[in-house]
Amino acid sequence: MQKLHSHEDKRSLVLRLKRVEGQLRGIQQLIETEEDCEAIAQQLAAARRALDKTFHAMVACAIDHHLAGQAGVTPGLQKKIENVSAIIAKYA
Q1: What is the mean pLDDT of residues 35-57?
Q2: Which of 5, 25, 27, 32 is at a distance of 20 to 30 A from 76, taking alpha carbons?
């Protein structure tokens, strides 16, 4: 099982989760102050998308770490792996 060793990867994921945490606190406040249901639903959808993006970034990181550890990975192939991981994290 792979673990996050890169300080940059850990920091990026934690920052994403902190933003989601802030969004969730905001949604709680909207509910407590009895705001419009559509506004709450919109914020829930945004938080869900942010959490999904965090998940996809984590999957891309796992792919990158798994493939980078394989024997025979050339610098060119490593760059391709990083590009695919970035695409997954950005668009998935």
Answers
A1: 94
A2: 5
